[in-house]
Write a structure and sequence with these properties.
With about 110 residues, this protein is mostly helical. The longest helix is centred in the middle third of the chain and has 37 residues. The chain has 4 helices and no strands.
């Protein structure tokens, strides 16, 4: 899809998306659809590691902070891993960081 959209955006192909897809496969073969996959992977893979690493780190920090709050309030932790409330908050912060980095990368 990326190859087709880029060629349509540059004006190299016109018409509908399916027509452009057929034209690329007819002119260059099906492997042309994978052109640029390596470069895109080089950009996407570090973002995935950043997102996952940030999520895990924030999940641990927030779980510990929430356990401390629960202990101070006299509320028992659920399970051996605490309340688990850090999971959602860590995910939100990790996604905001990853999307922000992705937007900056595309500009």
């Amino acid at each position: 899809a990326e190859v087709v959209s880029r060629r349509m955006a540059t004006g190299a192909l016109t018409g509908s998306f399916p027509a452009a897809l057929r034209a690329i496969v007819k002119d260059s073969g099906p492997m042309a659809l994978y052109h640029g996959l390596g470069a895109a992977s080089i950009r996407v893979v570090p973002m995935a590691f950043l997102s996952f690493g940030t999520y895990e780190a924030l999940r641990i920090v927030l779980d510990r902070a929430l356990e401390d709050d629960d202990d101070a309030l006299g509320v028992g932790a659920i399970g051996e891993h605490g309340t688990g409330n850090g999971n959602g908050r860590g995910g939100v912060v990790a996604q905001v960081a990853a999307v922000s980095a992705g937007v900056a990368d595309n500009r």
